[in-house]
## 1
Amino acid sequence: MKTLNNYTKGIIRENPVLVLVLGTCPTLATSTSVQNALGMGAAATVVLLFSNILISALRKVIPDKVRIPCYIVLIAGLVTAVQMIVKAYAPALNDSLGIYLPLIVVNCIILGRAEMFASKNGVVQSAADALGMGTGFTLTLFLMASVREVFGNGTFCGMAIPLLSENRISIMTMAPGGFFVFGLLIAAVNKFGKHKPRKSDFGCEGCPQAELCGKLSCEKGKEEAL
């Protein structure tokens, strides 16, 4: 059950794009077509999976003081390998993704999961977390790309759609259209998957304002939750 929970939480409850709001730049840039979205999602998921597995396996070996540089070097090596594979077997996809494929190295989703989860949990749980986050990221890209490509280009996966192909809403393929669809999806997740606060959500540990407020805010939060 724990492994299943670590997988499913990344799909909706802790979706990396719509809930944690990470990886916004590649999401907006590569969601203009379904093919680009699926390609970016697959590449990021592969890197996320292997980086989580390796970092989890090496978490007791990597010195704490240099863990972030080590993570970045490891992730960069994986991204380089993935990019070489894409160039060899899917050159058209490589050209479409452009600079955003190598920029997976600095994707906040990958580094964030390495720091927050893989470095603190076992290999199996880290792999489940990576697959869940990768699935959530890919589904978000797919949903955004479907809406933007259908209404912006009048196509789906490059195939023309009658009527829509002749009445395109070109702004959907531009930045304003991307932000519009992005906002709608975030609103939908907030509406139907609203997180309800629990008593355990309130605490002074790690709060930079704890000393200034005299821990009164935490007590007030607990009273409101009750």
## 2
Amino acid sequence: MEPYSPEKLPINLSSMDWYIVAKKISEASAALAYYNGVLESIINPAIFLSPLETKEAVFSSRIEGTITTVDEVLKYEVDMKPGSSSKENDIIEVLNYRTATRHAKDWLNRSMPFNITLICAIQKELIQGVRGKDKHPGEIRKEQVWIGPRNRPIEEATYVPPEPLGLKTHLDTLVDYMNRSDQEVLIQTAIMHAQFEIIHPFCDGNGRTGRILIPLYLWSKGRISSPMFYICEYFDENREQYLDNLRQISEAKDWENWILFFMEAITVQAKRNSEKANQVLNLYNRMRNKIADLTKSPYAMKVLDALFTNPIMRPPDFIRISGLEPKSAHRIIAKLKSENILSTFQKHSGRSSEVLIFEDLYNLVR
């Protein structure tokens, strides 16, 4: 099988059934606009939705074979270690995904360009200390790779990405396309993601890198007010269709079915994201007055934000996140426990402090 040569951008989409495609774009745009309205109603979505960001990292990593859960990741963050090193590596991959996403947001927040340097930085962060760590992290590949059965020759490959010598040109062309302002943004996003996966510029981490780019790109194009959009649940639920539609682009130049699939993913996940964000927001609003009355403290908002940052934490984490003095923090924790807002998830043992759980939020994000 010969290395694939990506189509030139922008793609000629004149043969698509635009009646069907336009309807799907309209549905996706409406669902995304509604979700953005929810985002704009949230004072600090980075705090409110951080547990959902962890969930997104779990789904995206699962597509690549990483087996872990939101539960396990949250527990790991309070030093509740899993029973095996392989499980720990899976959890670290998820945490790397989340870290890479956050650093990329910081990059774009500083008005830095959406470019190859950013993309390489995302991929480098993803594979730090885990699978692929020895496969030239952050570097465009200099060798031919192929996708197919493990440990089988290229002749048995299901897909052979472009040869290494042309990768820089392909990526430059892709970034130029991403920065164009004369394209329909949702179609542009769908094509951006697919073309990135087709180019397959790294030796490892291409799928996760490409999925991280989706919310960042929608944010950079002004379609969402914060880069907190979670699409990987749909991709994970429809993994075979997701991969097959990408494969059909290289095998049959079938962009239409990929774009239709991508629009459906946007629509479904925008509705799910809206529902979940509204649930978190409603919980926050219920807790705001309750905690203010309970604590009688000028730091009630700091307490509230600390609770919503992570549903599982130890008292030292609560102190660090809230910025309260230890004495005040322990007094407030005791009050929160007395009102069943916080409860003990794991008792104090030896040198390990108690693990606290904010069950209302925990049950929302599991």
## 3
Amino acid sequence: MKYEMIIFDADETLFDFKKSEKVSLESTMREFNLDYEEDYHLEIYKEINAAVWKELEEGLITQKELNDLRFQRLLERLKINKNAIDIADTYIKHLSRSSFLYENSFDLIENLSKAYRMAIISNGLKEVQNNRLGKSTISKFFEVIIISEEVGLAKPDPAIFQLLFDRTNSPDKSKVLMVGDSLSSDIQGGINFGIDTCWYNAGETINQSKIKPTYEINRLTDLYDLLGIAPHPFTA
């Protein structure tokens, strides 16, 4: 067996974060008695949110600044005169309660846990991820869960991978695989640290970047073939 440890990203890899995001934004807007049209408001929020997370990955802002900043920009864009910090805090409250696993996540993780050591590295806010990940049904299968805000580091910084290795008795890098949906954070982070990577490309988008993963899969269950193991007979 080539690998002994698998490091997973959380959101959009094992967890349906888009669903959590959608539910939480609508709940927040309605709590403040603001008009909400999903096709309009959610798309604007996603555009702003993606830009803010990119700024975080590039080291331009801190994780503490991220949540308030995205809602300041959202309210400015929508020309809404409300307290951005209050809305940002309310959004975090709703988001921390919104945890949705993808259909195959539990069975996959349960099966892999019988053969591999496993960990999670998540670029996320501790208030959100501690609740969403820590209380999820799959948390028990992971040896270590590292949340970027808690440690002051974020993917693709190789230092966050080194921290995980320090907490897991420094496994052999050649026997560790990083699995995630983001080329710029998960895959680039794994490459920066010198471990093999697997890009979970559920949308089957064309990789036009210079970031080259070791492997690419389009379904989570493709990991069974990639790793050369058979799924549990009831989860095939």
